[in-house]
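OP here, attaching both records as promised.
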Amino acid sequence: MNIVYPEFKNPIGLIREKEFGNEFYYSLNDPTDSCLPVVNYPHRVWVGNDQGWRYANVKKTVAYIVTDDDEYGQPVIEKWSLTKNEII
């Protein structure tokens, strides 16, 4: 099990994605500096490796992570199955 410890702000939870077993902290998205609607992406998942965070919608057993944007500026979303979602 790998735990990713990026520099994160105000974490509210910890998730473990199913495919590789990596764990990531997440926090609430800040509407004052969000490029995407907070109602659609209420969380930020701290991914580490100098990548900072990604917009996300974390549910109980799945997380929708914005990984990029397409040629039209629309978010590209990955669906991560979760084996853990712990509120801290």
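Record two, same layout:
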Amino acid sequence: MSTSTLTFLNQWQTLIGSALGPFLAVMLSVIGYLIKRKIERDRELKEAIRTIDTSIVRTLNDLYSARMNLKDFITRLKGIIDEVKKITDPTVYSLDETNFPYTSLFFDATLPTLQTESNYLHNQIIFFGAGIEKNNAALTNMKESFSTLLRKNELSVVQNQPPLQRKIYIENLKIFIESVESFIDLLKQGCKVSQQIKIYNEKLGRARTKTIKQFEKVGKPYRNREKWAANIDQVNGLIEAEVNEAVKKAEAGLERIRASAIQAVNTG
């Protein structure tokens, strides 16, 4: 091989080396960044799932506590009605009262901003958060309405004879009890939605990619509300058995707690 050929090969090798060096460095840097970003992303997703679980459990506890407090409140109202009915003296008014229970439902406003790669969970959390906001507003209005009912009863003492005053008071209490019972039914539905979010979130925590592929087959539900609803209904149907079982256990536990509380009051 001639000297000129060897010189050419050496120069070519040097040229290739000088070109590949920076290229390989860039490629390694990109690969390193992608690996680092994936690790960070996995950490963010795990933290989001943990935050959702903690927050939903707290909201779920508030929902069950609210239902129990409102049921106890209804029991007290019915007790007042029974006592008023016992009055036979035509000169006796009734001003028996009880307090509306302090009840507030927690919801972490940051949950809709968390990324879990699940369209179902994102949409459920948005709808659920809006529902909790409305329920808190309803509780505030209900408390104000009850205060108004008591003030009207005080005014009725001035405006009406005792038998009529007592009759009006009983009727107003019955109407109010009906509205509270209807609201308790709404809270019960909220408990079920909480369980849906909690159970699906736990599935994501165990196997995120597999769960999304298995349960969410509607495509991209962000395009319109119809696909949002289709996605939510589809997943709810697939996890219904698990949710119903969780709801059943929670309801049984709630009744045990309430029964124990009533027994403690009766024997205290």
